[in-house]
Recover the amino acids of this structure.
């Protein structure tokens, strides 16, 4: 594998995001940890959808909940936690159905 | 004050600019003219500075490949901005202020950042201050010397939308008049 186009590889982009986030989480506010994880989850969805070469409706729903969580993190921590719960339930339902 | 900055603010009231600025995390694919970027960083150098030490160095990035690389290692950078300003403390300058040097430099940088973001808004350009980036990575990517410490990043671009303002703590709660605990209108 050539390293020439590695910057365009979404797996590599995720890797860079994860290592930078890991270091950042040491100093940042505690809620930034879950924020980075859901941002990473969104990147994983993008990788999965690229692999299947189409949008997957159930994962698109997960993305909507991730966006909802991101929108409330700075204004309503309680709502943020509730939305994370919603996210886990959504993914659990996908797993259960399979 | 330079005429250039004065002209920029002329068609909006100053309070409109202060209240209208929002943190923007989604940008249009539209280039920012270099002259506007220059105006924005110029607003930064006119910020107040303790003992006029001006402990700052501003690194302006408008190379899209470089922005992409910086974004990879900056978890707090959302969207694809057209430019970044990295605000750094030059420790050789800040130490001139003695023990206060470090905290004064952060105050100076913060005021410079606010000037830049207000200037950007007055030009219709969105911005977002970002502290969640990896300093060591940035140092490596941009060849920043040891005595220069990157402390804040501002992303710049034309917004896809201006978000509604988040709630602010009211004046009556935040401001204490003549004595701590005595508020406006109470």
């Amino acid at each position: 594998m050539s390293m020439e186009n590695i910057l365009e590889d979404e797996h590599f982009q995720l890797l860079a995001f994860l290592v930078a986030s890991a270091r950042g989480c040491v100093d940042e506010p505690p809620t930034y940890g879950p924020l980075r994880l859901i941002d990473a989850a969104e990147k994983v969805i993008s990788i999965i959808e690229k692999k299947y070469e189409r949008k997957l409706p159930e994962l698109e729903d997960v993305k909507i909940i991730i966006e909802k969580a991101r929108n409330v993190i700075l204004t309503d921590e309680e709502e943020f936690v509730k939305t994370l719960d919603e996210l886990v339930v959504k993914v659990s339902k996908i797993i259960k159905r399979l | 004050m330079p005429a250039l900055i004065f002209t920029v603010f002329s068609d909006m009231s100053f309070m409109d600019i202060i209240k209208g600025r929002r943190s923007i995390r989604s940008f249009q694919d539209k280039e920012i003219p270099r002259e506007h970027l220059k105006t924005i960083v110029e607003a930064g150098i006119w910020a107040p500075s303790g003992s006029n030490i001006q402990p700052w160095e501003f690194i302006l990035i408008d190379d899209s490949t470089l922005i992409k690389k910086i974004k990879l290692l900056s978890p707090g950078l959302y969207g694809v901005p057209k430019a970044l300003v990295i605000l750094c403390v030059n420790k050789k300058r800040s130490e001139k202020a003695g023990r206060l040097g470090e905290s004064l430099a952060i105050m100076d940088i913060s005021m410079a950042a606010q000037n830049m973001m207000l200037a950007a808004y007055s030009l219709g350009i969105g911005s977002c201050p970002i502290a969640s980036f990896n300093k060591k990575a940035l140092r490596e990517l941009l060849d920043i010397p040891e005595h220069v410490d990157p402390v804040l990043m501002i992303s710049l671009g034309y917004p896809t939308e201006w978000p509604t303002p988040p709630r602010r703590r009211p004046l009556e709660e935040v401001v204490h008049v003549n004595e701590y605990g005595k508020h406006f209108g109470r």
Residues 1-6 of chain B have pLDDT under 50 and may be disordered. DSSP finds eight helices and four strands in chain B. The first strand of chain B starts at residue 56 and ends at 61. The interface with chain A takes residues 68-69, 72-76, 132-134, 137, 166-167 of chain B (CB under 8 Å).
